[in-house]
Amino acid sequence: MILDEIKKANVQALKERNQNARAVYSVVLTKAMLETVKKREKQEELTDADMVQILQKTIKELNDESESYKKANNLQQSNLIEEQKEILSKYLPKMLSEDEIFDIISKQENKTIPYIMKFFKENYAGKVDMSKVGIVLKKFN
Question: What value does the mean pLDDT take over residues 73-95?
Answer without folding.
Answer: 90
